[in-house]
Amino acid sequence: VPALFFSKVERRYPQGSGALEILRGAELAIWPGELVALVAPSGAGKSTLLHLAGLLERPDGGEVYIGGTPTATMADSERTRLRREEMGFVYQFHHLLPEFSALENVVMPQLIRGLGAKEAKSRATELLSFLGLKDRLIHRPAELSGGEQQRVAIARAVANGPRLLLADEPTGNLDPHTAGHVFGILLSLVRASGLAALVATHNMELAGRMDRRVTIRDGLIEQLA
Ligand code: ADP
Ligand code: ADP
């Protein structure tokens, strides 16, 4: 089954006496192991689409399936559980906890999830090492470069083994060289884990390195060449 499936998704916001139609029957399927770029001009609805996929908003029509499970009319508590267990999020800014080390930042979500401390630490160490941060485990975010901070944020996002990674301009705050490097690492992580990823970006070079590109046009999701 697709990790993420939009079926005839509608989303509109009130505007004056009418409505601003952001999505009006959008279709999208992202399969395990696929890395899909979401490329669209500002205001087209990228954040709205990511919020719908991340179960932070509900569609006004249609259905959003996560791993085959319909979510549109699910109770908030169930949506929160699905979000915690099935999804990882990466944003433009890392949102790491400043007073904790890189390792602790990656251990934390696993403890919240109920994993034992020893297992969580071992998994966090393995992940951070995979991301090239073996020598940065005890550093706090302020002691890390921008690219390193973002790699820690990626490790945190996938620490609980989600089936879907949602990223909003994950390298948007990095210089082009570092962005290319961090993106390459993200790519190999997705490849190694078989997780599905939807990545919103303005960077056409990075978009070109993903498996597919989609855009939002007139409220529909379209494939780009
Ligand atoms: P993007 O991320 O592509 O820039 P957004 O999804 O943030 O686009 O927004 C799409 C459009 O919907 C914009 O015109 C925005 O002003 C509008 N919009 C977004 N959220 C709301 C909201 N909560 N209420 C009203 N309008 C909104
Ligand atoms: P980049 O060129 O990738 O932005 P920086 O010049 O910010 O990297 O940092 C280079 C190295 O120095 C990084 O590996 C980082 O871990 C380390 N570093 C940066 N700032 C600090 C700091 N305040 N304390 C300790 N180490 C730091």
TrEMBL record:
Superkingdom: Bacteria
Database matches in Pfam families: ABC_tran (PF00005)
This protein's record includes keyword Nucleotide-binding: yes
GO molecular function: ATP binding
InterPro entries xref list: AAA+_ATPase, ABC_transporter-like_ATP-bd, ABC_transporter-like_CS, ABC_transpr_LolD-like, MacB-like_ATP-bd, P-loop_NTPase
All copies of domain ABC transporter, residue ranges: 4-224
Alphabetic keyword roster: ATP-binding, Lipoprotein, Nucleotide-binding, Translocase, Transport
SUPFAM superfamilies: P-loop containing nucleoside triphosphate hydrolases
Signal peptide residue numbers: none
PANTHER family: IMPORT ATP-BINDING PROTEIN, LIPOPROTEIN-RELEASING SYSTEM ATP-BINDING PROTEIN LOLD
The family this protein is said to belong to: Belongs to the ABC transporter superfamily.
Protein name: Lipoprotein-releasing system ATP-binding protein LolD
Species of origin: Methylobacterium iners
